[in-house]
């Protein structure tokens, strides 16, 4: 949520987003509020595995072509997802709070 606070400082923009889009927030394992610690014996997923899990979520909710928003590592994974599944992504909004020059 902290990565996207700037989008919600403008009430008109927040209203437009919340009234015209269906928003799904996908948290990685262990990031949910009150989640148990990730077991060190659990396998470490590759970025390809994470991309495929995003596809599973989209299919579960019957989502067709979507616009994705991601920050930091999520932006990287969504970029890979968009490359791998071009027909499922209409657009990307990638946010990086760490930068040294415009990109």
UniProtKB/TrEMBL annotation:
Belongs to the NDRG family. The lineage of its organism: Eukaryota, Viridiplantae, Streptophyta, Embryophyta, Tracheophyta. This is Alpha/Beta hydrolase. The chain crosses the membrane at residues 60-83. Keywords: Hydrolase, Membrane, Transmembrane, Transmembrane helix. It comes from the Eukaryota. Pfam families: Ndr (PF03096). Gene3D superfamilies: alpha/beta hydrolase. PANTHER family: N-MYC DOWNSTREAM REGULATED (PTHR11034). GO terms for molecular function: hydrolase activity. It comes from Helianthus annuus (Common sunflower).
């Amino acid at each position: 949520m902290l990565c996207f606070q700037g989008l919600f400082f403008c009430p008109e923009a927040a209203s437009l987003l919340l009234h015209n889009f269906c928003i799904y927030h996908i948290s990685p394992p262990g990031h949910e509020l009150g989640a148990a610690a990730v077991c060190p014996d659990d396998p470490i997923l590759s970025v390809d595995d994470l991309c495929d899990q995003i596809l599973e979520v989209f299919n579960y909710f019957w989502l067709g072509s979507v616009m994705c928003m991601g920050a930091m590592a999520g932006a990287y994974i969504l970029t890979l997802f968009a490359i791998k599944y071009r027909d499922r992504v209409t657009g990307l909004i990638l946010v990086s709070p760490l930068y040294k020059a415009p990109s």
